[in-house]
Amino acid sequence: VQLVESGGGLVQPGGSLRLSCAVSGSFFSIGTMGWYRQVPGKQRELVAAITIGGTTNYADSVKGRFTISRDNAKNTVYLLMNSLKPEDTAVYYCNAIIRGIDYWGKGTLVTVSS
Prior knowledge:
0% helix; 114 residues; single chain; 7-stranded mixed beta sheet; 4-stranded antiparallel beta sheet; mainly beta; 11 strands
């Protein structure tokens, strides 16, 4: 199973980015999918998650600004990030749970700076 993130980059405060994560490999279905982020010296933290049925969960710090979605036919999860702040700067990691096992992408860097 492989997870490949895309869509990171440099954006000004107040701007938007959309991250994508495509999951490939041999499996029947994907359970919960999510996005985490990590800055140097801190633990990786949950940003948002979405179940196979579409139920979502967000960190308080991103509620109202970020939207997670998934396309089950494409085995892809998205994270739309609006009103970005400098404190959103981090490496963002995609996560997928398949048959009870956590799989991770390699991460994509998001930098919010003027």
